């Protein structure tokens, strides 16, 4: 049992660190298949798996010390970016200019994205469909991170302007309050990319332009609400950021679709085989609603055997008897006795443990 709670704690912490929230990465990856051209129609079976593995890269942070630096780039620490709006695009070039320590300490997101793209090309060439799906999922995560403006700036948490905490408030908490409004990607046509590394940097340069917009919106929301925790604050924050955040999610799904399409074409557009369907054996996944929740929380998954509520430090708050859920996909638990705040709900079945963050009103 102690080992189980240790696992819950580690998974819980990884959830906290997830950019765009786990639901954000889920839907950015999920919606990308809407843009697959008819020649890739067979890959539509990837839709759920790309989504379910959308946060694998974040989960690796708990055990891979090299993973974190792949999720950001403090691009405004590069003097040439501040003067010209660009930096050298290849990893070897930028290291030769600034040195390895400088480059790695400021994050390697664009080059990690290109490396994952190259891995996807190789998996396609080898007809290794399972590996290709997992690489495409990680590629989607890195693309999603690059479309979060606070992942491409040294002022990633508002510290230089005394706005500490804006990173989580914007990318996670605001997303939870407005998920249905942000998930609007209907698909779009995809095109061949001449230079993949340049393509990656181009969307980073565009997304950087929204850094100040997020910080200005935070100032506005605080002036309206007088705090950073109330519903009024998050409504005000979304009123100023919702339109461009929706666009950033749209662009992230489209960029992922274009990169997957280009990787497939570069690999020679390999014919699909029956093996492509063998990507569906995924670990446990849960969905929760509503979020925020006041009195009851509904958890959906297969054959849930236990449900627990934990605080953000991984400490157990409440355990629920869920015998009736072993034969149903839906469990409804009473959370009315829990104090208002942010918690983790952990559900277990024979596949493992799944954790999601929720707000108790």
Task: Provide structural commentary.
The protein has 361 residues and is α+β, with helices and mostly antiparallel strands. 48% of the residues lie in helices and 11% in strands. The chain has helices at 2-16, 21-32, 47-52, 56-59, 79-84, 91-98, 100-105, 109-125, 129-146, 166-182, 196-208, 211-225, 231-266; strands spanning 287-289, 296-300, 306-310, 316-320, 330-334, 341-349, 352-360. The model is unreliable at 1-18 (pLDDT under 50).
| SS class | alpha+beta
**Rg from Cα:** 21 Å
Percent of residues in helices comes to: 40-55%
Strand content: 5-15%
Give the overall silhouette. Answer: globular
What is the correct CATH architecture of the largest domain? Orthogonal Bundle
| CATH level-1 class of the largest domain | Mainly Alpha
How many discrete domains? 2
Main beta-sheet strand count, sense and barrel state: 4 strands, antiparallel
Q: What is the CA-CA span between the terminal residues?
A: 30 Å
Number of helices: 13
Number of separate strands: 7
How is this structure best summarized?
The protein is α+β, with helices and mostly antiparallel strands and 361 residues long. It has helices at 2-16, 21-32, 47-52, 56-59, 79-84, 91-98, 100-105, 109-125, 129-146, 166-182, 196-208, 211-225, 231-266, and strands at residues 287-289, 296-300, 306-310, 316-320, 330-334, 341-349, 352-360. Helix 2 crosses helix 10 (166-182), helix 2 packs parallel to helix 13 (231-266) and helix 12 (211-225) packs antiparallel against helix 13.
